[in-house]
Amino acid sequence: MVISVDRGRWGCVLESGTGQLVTAMRARELGRTPIVVGDRVSVVGDRSGQPGTLARIVRLEERSSVLRRTADDTDPFERIVVANATQLLIVVAAAEPTPRTGFVERALIAAYAGGIAPILGVTKGDIADASSFAAHFAGLDLPIVQCGIADSLEVLSDLLDGEITALLGHSGVGKSTLVNRIVPDADRATGAVTGVGKGRHTSSQSVALKLPRHDHSSWVIDTPGVRSFGLAHISADDVLDAFADLMDAVEECPRGCGHLGAPEDPECALDELESASYARAMAVRRLLAALRTNEAW
Ligand SMILES: Nc1nc2c(ncn2[C@@H]2O[C@H](COP(=O)(O)OP(=O)(O)OP(=O)(O)O)[C@@H](O)[C@H]2O)c(=O)[nH]1
Ligand SMILES: [Mg+2]
Ligand SMILES: [Zn+2]
After folding, report:
1. Which of 98, 124, 177 to mutate to test the pocket of ligand 1 (most atoms within 8 A of CB)?
2. Model pTM above 0.85
3. Per-residue model confidence as pLDDT tens digits over 145-162
4. CATH class of the structural domain 66-222
5. DSSP state letters, 198-235
6. Residue ranges of the domains in the chain?
7. For a FRET experiment, which of 70, 105, 155, 229 has its CA 20 to 30 Å from that of 113?
């Protein structure tokens, strides 16, 4: 498993034997194939992990999930943020920086479209109350956990068990601070937010860290703060795919339905749903509307 990437060097943890950490380069035959944190790879050559040794990545395994983003919504160039994550912990601060619904909506879209289960994590509950912010996302079956420095991490810890969880959020929301609490020897650098409540982009690389004292193999992936989150190439159906009940319903939609409801899509079958499915459909529609706004936030 690739746990770090830095200027043409991949840090890999071997699955066989002792879980040795080796540094590897990408074999020439792989060309410029992107290899990202979370990827499963085959490594040959010197796998001792001794200082100064360099192994070779010769094969990239098929990915079970991908979190993708583009610089903005018109950018044709997709970047894979992490591979094989099973969960996405979308981290927002109750304040400093101010939470933005648009960012969370975009992160949710990327998670659903990428086959990754989202969780909303709220930090800095000690300086502001984020309950009205979190209420925007009711209806999606989205777990919402308080995980600031003043909160117990018991609930989050249960959610992380046996999973590969990538953290995603603006700079300064407290991702690395949280990772240091979850993995006490992670030693991730953290940086105070500026006077205007913006992060300093302290973390510049993604790193996967194994959780201690968990029965099942559990990982968290700290990522650099995102500035923009473009969603080029994601369609309404990619998002609906994450919701079996909604996917069934939209089979009845007219061709080309964008599922937004009236006035754009007056005959959308999501309008016919009832109770919890209807609530979920309306929450997903709010996400789809965010996808239509065509802005990187
Ligand atoms: N009051 C308060 N401060 C917090 C909390 N969590 C983190 N901080 C502070 O917020 C600042 C930013 O934390 P980081 O962990 O560096 O944030 P990050 O999300 O990793 O930022 P980038 O690496 O830049 O993306 C630091 O000064 C932390 O001490 C919290 O729950 N409450
Ligand atoms: Mg950080
Ligand atoms: Zn429809």
Report:
1. 177
2. yes
3. 999 999 999 999 999 999
4. alpha beta
5. -------S-EEEEPTT-SS--EEEE-PPPS--B-TT--
6. 2-60, 66-222, 236-292
7. 155
